[in-house]
Design goal:
By secondary structure, this protein is mainly beta. It is built from six helices and 22 strands. The chain has two domains: 255 residues, Beta Barrel (Thrombin, subunit H); 85 residues, Pdz3 Domain (Roll), CATH 2.30.42.10. The chain is 11% helix and 41% strand.
């Protein structure tokens, strides 16, 4: 795990919610064809107590260790996180930053049993990792639809805060949606904001709606001080499951991740540019040579304002639009360039990357 802080608008920092300080990796595991469990019709809301009783056996604690050399002496660094069960035969989901660099991973069950775990694969860019333990007849979680949650909706988290308080329940509401947060290095994710208590050791835990369905993976909390020196309280974040379930299934079934790809990086249009008449949209920061966007004629500093007629008001809109595309789809982009509006048409490509531990990434096809 990483002890990394990134500033949000210069006034707060986001801390990955993993207990203690260590850096982790793992060994490959032969993957088979697996599927996740999704919600069925006829759902009923649960009390927090009912939800806990129904789901606590689907959640786990994750303990990690790594051998480190300090001043010529070998010692062991330990850390902790959370996770939850994906399949009856022992596939488990957690955050990548929980298990990054690990020499050993142990998964603890609510029953008191513990298992050695192997790292099946991961996607660092989305902060997810899949583990495997040798167990049968486990109870997997049920996934909900994170696109349908609304601000103010009740949510519950179950995790392992501080690395010692496993299977703790915290309750709150959805405080915000689609928050673009910088976590560590260049990692930027669009997250659910909640006021559930999420502390060190809670990373990788399940965020449930009140139907008992997982709609997020807890992974970060705001830390530091705001203007005026007031402490930040109850500002925590979770990865929406709709953004990662396809990735998780690919890790389990293929050991690699395929994504629609156009080959650009984008940011929101700066307020200073808006003041000079540049429209809201996705500001192109970089274009990959020979990628679909480059072949279509897109250039750095272009501002994309629509895709196939759908308004694009910021970078997140474009990311979500391309994520929903299929390889070989045709996309017509409306582009603001140096005071003029033009249209460019591209064909969505495919990016394929290995998800296996210590494997080299495949080039885009």
């Amino acid at each position: 795990m990483k002890n990394a802080f990134s500033h949000i608008r210069g006034v707060t920092a986001v801390l990955l919610a993993v207990a203690l300080v260590c850096s982790l990796a793992g060994a490959a595991y032969a993957v088979n064809d697996r599927t996740l469990t999704y919600a069925a019709a006829g759902r009923q809301t649960l009390s927090a107590a009912e939800l806990y009783a129904e789901n606590v056996n689907s959640t786990v604690s994750v303990e990690v260790s790594q051998k480190v050399n300090m001043f010529g002496y070998e010692t062991v660094s330990a850390g902790a996180g959370s996770g939850f069960i994906l399949t009856p035969d022992g596939y488990i989901l957690t955050n990548f930053h929980v298990v990054e660099g690990a020499d050993a991973i142990t998964v603890g069950m609510y029953s008191g049993e513990s298992y050695d775990a192997e790292l099946v694969g991961y996607d660092e860019s989305n902060d997810v990792a899949v583990l495997k333990i040798d167990a049968q007849d486990l109870k997997p979680v049920t996934f909900g639809d994170s696109d349908k949650i609304v601000v103010g909706e009740d949510v519950v988290a179950i995790g392992n805060p501080l690395g010692t308080l496993a299977f703790s329940l915290t309750r709150g509401v959805v405080s915000g949606l689609d928050r673009e947060i910088s976590l560590s290095g260049s990692m930027r994710l669009r997250l659910i904001q909640t006021d559930c208590a999420i502390n060190a050791g809670s990373s990788g835990g399940a965020l449930f709606n009140m139907y008992g369905e997982v709609i997020g993976i807890t992974n970060a909390k705001a830390s530091g001080s705001s203007y005026g020196g007031a402490a930040i309280e109850s500002t925590t974040f979770a990865i929406p499951v709709n953004t990662i379930v396809n990735i998780v299934e690919q890790i389990m079934t293929k050991g690699e991740i395929s994504r629609p790809y156009i080959g650009i990086s984008v940011t929101d249009v700066a307020e200073t540019l808006r003041a000079y008449g540049v429209p809201a949209g996705a500001d192109v920061a970089e274009v990959t040579k020979d990628a679909p966007a480059d072949q279509a004629g897109l250039k750095k500093n272009d501002v994309i304002t629509a895709a196939n007629g759908t308004p694009i008001t910021g970078s997140g809109d474009l990311v979500n639009f391309i994520r929903a595309c299929s390889v070989d789809d045709k996309v017509t982009l409306t582009v603001f360039r140096q005071g003029e509006t033009i249209e460019l048409t591209l064909t969505v490509g495919e990016s394929v990357k290995s998800a296996l531990p210590e494997a080299e990434a495949k080039p885009a096809e």
